[in-house]
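Handout for the seminar on molecular recognition.
Each group receives one record of this type.
Step one: identify the two inputs.
Step two: read the structure output and locate the region that could contact calcium ion.
Step three: write two sentences on what you found, then compare them with the reference statements printed after the record.
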Amino acid sequence: MKLSIVILAAGQGKRMYSKTPKVLHKIGGKPILQHVIETAVKLNPNRLIIIGGHGYEEVKTTIDNTFTNNSFKWVFQDKQLGTGHALMQALPYLDNDGCTLVLYGDVPLINLTTLQQMIAKYEDNLVMLTSVLDNPSGYGRVVRDDKYKISKVVEEKDATLAEKLIREVNTGFYILANKFLPEWLSKISNNNQQSEYYLTDVIAFSYSHGVLVDYVESSNVFEALGINNKIQLEQLERVYQLYLADKLLESGATLADKSRVDIRGDVTVGQDCYIDVNCILEGNVVLGNNVVLGAGSILKNVIISDGVNIKPYSIIEDAVIGEHCQVGPFSRIRPGTRLNSNVHIGNFVEVKNSTIAHASKVNHLTYIGDAEIGSSVNIGAGSVTCNYDGKNKSKTVIGNGVFIGSGTMMVAPVHIKDGGVIGAGSTITKDTPENELTVARAKQVTVTGWVKRNKS
Ligand code: UD1
Ligand code: CA
């Protein structure tokens, strides 16, 4: 069967009170529309058409940057005259036969299996997805005849008091036979409270033509919820987060509190990981086996190897952390950092664009930037790689087995060779030799009588 999918995504989303087009607001760190497209793509449609309008270029660019080399057909709906008008814009690009699945770009959590159930029910008729809500307000209501057949959908603003009591609502997902579309879409009028061309009118047309309106009732309330304002955005975000947390639990992670972890991307976990409260995981996060994430850790695009202990309130981005490292509490690991195994990074240490080899320690109050540090190095508290002269960034190389005394300034470019020891408080501006002690600081003097003389 030839399946086309049309995603309606042209609306402004006035009730969001935002300059960002509605479908680009995010759930779980991904634009709402991206969720819908990801699900749609899994159905392998013959063609996927997206109706854009409000913020067209911004929406298209965002989606094209995410789905590289896609073959989506974008259609511009200049004026957003309603969902029926929106689907009409897709008509020139649809086949004469086969069917079209309509998805709404502002309903992000639709399940793949639900859409597959709808497709399974389709037999040249109309199949719609309904949902029974405790609070149906704002949704189109599903009206049935005395034989319990669906006869039409009435929008809340056009509904009678009796119709408003109906709790079965239209989710905005339909499968329609292409052969009926040209006629039905041309017959839609805007004679209603909102003066819009309602796509939902096709349900009444189908009924009056004796074409069965079949339905699938959504088994999961959340998949049918649309986002029209910030309250709904926040509600669905929480629902989605609980769903993602459950997936982590199912794959064997231990969570201190599943309602206090936020996942904004794709996370994979090894065995026996423990995630404490208030962690935020963004982008692609890979956790090996036996990883511990301390409270309040924020990880973005990172690979954390087996046995790593991230202590509370550490921030790690675009980095690879080797096996059995310890990071934190309060460490900041910035992009381009590679820690080999058994490295310790302690509190108030910032590491940027640096590699640190096996078993080296940077435990307190230190900045390491653009550095290459060997194995079994110890960097004393309060040391700084001075990598920036105001114009250029330069590199610091520290050999294996080096001991850097506390409070050392290493003015890059500089090379501290293997086995060297640097006396505390040194400012190192030249390369230092292997296996020797180098001290670079003013000699301490005591000025006898100075205090007495200066007392008034
Ligand atoms: C629509 C349905 C309603 C259903 C609800 C489910 C109609 C008339 N009503 O109402 O029965 O219960 O969804 O969430 O269809 N859009 C366009 N172009 C337009 C108008 C809308 O692309 O000219 C897009 C919007 O961007 C949005 C989707 O269509 O993604 C739905 O439009 P919206 O205005 O939000 O419809 P609702 O009032 O929610
Ligand atoms: Ca809506």
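Reference statements: The chain has a mean pLDDT of 97. The domain at 254-438 is CATH 2.160.10.10 (UDP N-Acetylglucosamine Acyltransferase; domain 1).
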